[in-house]
């Protein structure tokens, strides 16, 4: 399994959009597969520092994703780059795929010169703490209590 940029596999945008929509359809931002596909296509145009990474299994199936996007929560201007859309289909869970993708996303951000990354999660704080993230606030996002976490990147 290799980590690759989604921009090299644009034909997978609809499949990934469907996966994300199925996982988080109760949240407004992920309730429409077509809107997710539009965001993925725009984010992976290669025109800025936003991107999506994926891992393809040997049979060509998507076995995980991670994205870095601008202003996922846009109420605090200094919080520019956000890690999100960390997803592993059920059949591939428990293999460390999400951790591999998160680490690869962080490394790509370092290469881009991004100094801080943010994320929010309702229930994966322990995973992110193991990877060096720390909680900076609790808040409501789409009616759900989440932890906002930060990672300071060093060159």
TrEMBL record:
One of its GO terms (cellular component) is cytoplasm. Keywords: Transferase. It comes from the Bacteria. GO terms for molecular function: acetyl-CoA binding; N-acetyltransferase activity. InterPro entries: Acyl_CoA_acyltransferase, GNAT_dom, NAA80. Pfam families: Acetyltransf_1 (PF00583). Residues 1-154 form the N-acetyltransferase domain. PANTHER family: N-ACETYLTRANSFERASE 6, N-ALPHA-ACETYLTRANSFERASE 80. This is Predicted acetyltransferase.
